[in-house]
Write a structure and sequence with these properties.
Layout (H helix, E strand, L loop, with lengths): L1 H36 L3 H30 L2 E2 L6 H14 L5 E5 L6 E5 L5 E6 H6 L2 H16 L2 H29 L5 H49 L2 H13 L28 H5 L6 H9 L2
Parallel strand pairs: 2-4
Antiparallel strand pairs: 1-2, 3-4
């Protein structure tokens, strides 16, 4: 199917672009922060080297980082043979190698996939979703997550999770340094140019987390709808996923281990009841409305 192949190629290109933007942004932050705190050119070199190493680490270890942050543990085939058989059957239908299976011990119903490619992929469920969905519904959820793996969404989304989290941490560090340590350069020596660079540093520190959030929003909304459709191509049964999403919609419990950096990875918004209501809050939701997704699935 050409549309799926185009999506895979686009995700690979965007992964490279995301890493390039991250390296540029961190190096730029290193320049302005080094100027403000008087560290000079050394901080620029450090920022560049750090951004390159962080990008490589995110590419090869993003799945391990995401699983560790989420408190997930691997489920061996002997522990839950039924779940492993289900994952293997769906993987065969999708033409993928069977991913490793992990679980988060939490009654909230949710799931996500992660990894850098189909050969190094993981599908992770909460204990709540495994216990409360029937086999057909869980097959629909699994097909959705394996579609993220097949389309290389997992690589891009995991990179976004780790790199966006790093940008937010660095911005917080800078703002806290300003609050507690102040500026190290003498304002009289800096003049107008120094004041402008200082202002740019503050603006970058304030806006970087917003940019990271906007990237997450752009990544996840479209890909959730595509994964729904691609998952149905595997199961040939739209009602399985539609019924699962309906049950997830009725579960108001937020996922305790979720955070803003990883929220876009899950099949549904993990914060649920913690979110504000209204159209303004919807603008910053990492997922399309469940009503819309269910309606689309039942129209197939």
């Amino acid at each position: 199917m050409p549309t799926i192949y185009r999506e895979i190629a686009e995700n690979k290109r965007k992964s490279i672009l995301l890493v390039a933007v991250f390296i540029f942004l961190i190096t730029a932050l290193g320049y302005v922060f080094g100027y403000v705190f008087g560290y000079g050119q050394g901080l620029i070199i450090f920022a560049f080297v750090f951004s390159v190493l962080a990008s490589l680490g995110s590419f090869y270890y993003s799945d391990k980082i995401v699983l560790a942050v989420s408190g997930a543990r691997e489920v061996l085939p002997l522990e839950n043979p039924t779940l492993h058989n289900l994952v293997e059957a769906v993987a065969i239908g999708a033409g993928l190698p069977k991913p490793r299976v992990f679980m988060i011990n939490d009654p909230a119903m949710n799931a996500f996939a992660t990894g850098r490619d189909p050969q190094h992929a993981v599908v992770c469920y909460t204990s709540g979703i495994v216990e409360r969905l029937d086999r057909v519904e869980l097959e629909g959820v699994t097909a959705h997550e394996l579609s993220h793996i097949k389309n290389y969404d997992v690589r891009y989304m995991a990179l976004v999770a780790v790199l966006a989290g790093m940008i937010t941490l660095l911005s917080d560090w800078f703002l806290q340094s300003l609050w507690w340590g102040g500026r190290r350069r003498d304002d009289r020596e800096e003049g107008q140019a120094g004041a402008v660079i200082f202002l740019i540093a503050v603006v970058l520190a304030l806006l970087s987390p917003l940019f990271a959030t906007l990237i997450q929003l752009a990544v996840s909304r479209k890909r959730e709808l595509l994964a729904d459709a691609d998952g149905v191509l595997v199961t040939r049964f739209p009602e399985g996923l539609a019924s699962a999403l309906e049950k997830l919609k009725g579960d108001s419990r937020p996922l305790s281990v979720a955070n803003k950096a990883t929220a876009h990875l899950y099949i549904v918004n993990p914060f649920k009841g913690k979110n504000l209501s209204g159209w303004f809050a919807g603008l910053f939701d990492t997922h399309p409305p469940l009503e819309e997704r269910i309606k689309i699935l039942r129209s197939m």
